[in-house]
Protein 1
Amino acid sequence: MVRIHFHESFYQDIRLGKKIQTARIDEPHYPLGEAMADFSDGSTLPIEVTGLSFKTINNMSVNEIRKDGFQSKEELWNALIGFYPHLKEEDPLMLVEFRCILN
């Protein structure tokens, strides 16, 4: 099963459906279908990967930014820089859309 790693601070937003997308760089292309969200504190949630696309941060819509759980490009950018310190605005982001599928 595909496992996608998240910081533990995203657990509740993913569980509640407030975060339904993650922006990644330099990671494998995740296949559509069932996966597991693994959190840095050891907790997990079952998810389904529902879409995959590629964009730079400057080409992301407000809707895409909100799917990621952020309200503005600046807020998302600041979070991304925390995970990817060498990220440049022109670098393509892999946008992974998903939904939580609790039993």
Protein 2
Amino acid sequence: MAKITLDNLAHSYLPNPKGEDDFALKELNHDWDDGAAYALLGSSGCGKSTLLNIISGLLHPSQGRILFDGQDVTHAPTAERNIAQVFQFPVVYDTMTVQDNLAFPLRNRGREESYVAERVQEIARMIGMEDMLKKKARGLTADAKQKISLGRGMVRKDVNALLFDEPLTVIDPHMKWELRTQLKKLHHDFGHTMIYVTHDQTEALTFADKVVVMYDGRVVQIGTPEELFERPEHTFVGYFIGSPGMNVIPARVEGSTAHLDGDVIPLADSYGPLDGRVEIGVRPEYVRLSQTEGVPVKVNRVEDVGRHKIIRAEYSGHDINIIAGEDEQIGADMNRVVFDPDHVNVYANDWRVAPLGRSAPAGEAA
């Protein structure tokens, strides 16, 4: 296990980058805690795999350093970093049996056969392949081969870090849930530093202690699932996490009031003067329909998804999503919405603005 430090790290695939836009990975400084489980989350092309490959040594950064427990490994080859990496598509030795594939990393390091056999059996149980150990890998399905790759990555207990690059892409949905559970158990039991790349928010939020959200080559927020949900630091985090994502509406904010195209909503906090493009963001879970209060909307449709209802509405040309309870009645005359002031975030040029302080409740002096 190792604490991984990213010091002034950035990378461009161009030979002579001229400016920030030429960098696939914008400048990053961060410590990855020893023994923590992280998920790198973002859409395709945001820099997730670039960052993972720099950490593993498959890619040399354009600038900055990588340190493992304070030791500079920026120029160290992958083999000297003592990491295990599992890729998006399975990498196995087709001519070997499943058992020999799983045993290979241990035998390559001279471990005793009794230990190898015990550890292979343990991992085979974990990935559900105990009855396939004697089979050659060549004839197996893609998802079976990926399970071998996962198992081979997990078979060693002494690695500095386990790196996973979209490892469940070819796995069927039910097995994805089982393998995520097993990865969580592995982390709990052995405390490996784990970094897991995915574009799937469910995978990220259920696997990681902390999620690293990336957008356009930049880390826009690192936080727990609760922090990402309640206080998205960037509008992209609000869009990307949640289903539906956060409602974002242009506004003019003065003190503890947001002005929306002729309508006014109260805010729980007070804000100073704001420059640039100002917006408010509120999760659909914190919006409710009303007959008499709030801002007027046009309700376009109601989607019953079983556990709850999603109301698709529109306000002044902007889509608004509302989540209502499964048993909640939606009347035809409910054409206004109320935002919970405690859960309205304010953004300027896509970044969350820290409030000056809590505004006074109605009837009290400020």
Protein 3
Amino acid sequence: MAHYKAEDSKREQFRRYLEKAGVLDALTKVLVALYEEPEKPNSALDFLKHHLGALAPENPEIEALRLEVAEMKEKYEAVLEENKTLKAKLAQYEPPEEEMPGE
């Protein structure tokens, strides 16, 4: 009987841990969304993965990386434009290829 109480206590601690972490609420919301879907998806597991991922709180590191990627894209576009401009300026000063000596 004491063994049963110890397992029950561990289960209750684990349940409280899940509740405190918000896991039970997140699972409940996703399962309710799946239940309320008019057309059930072919893969319930994929549905759960997709919707649980959407419920996950945003990691600050991920947001910082997204901002960095956006900045890098802007810099890349600016460098491409500058490269295009410089090539056009250079083309003004280079003789046409058919006039090059030695060919």
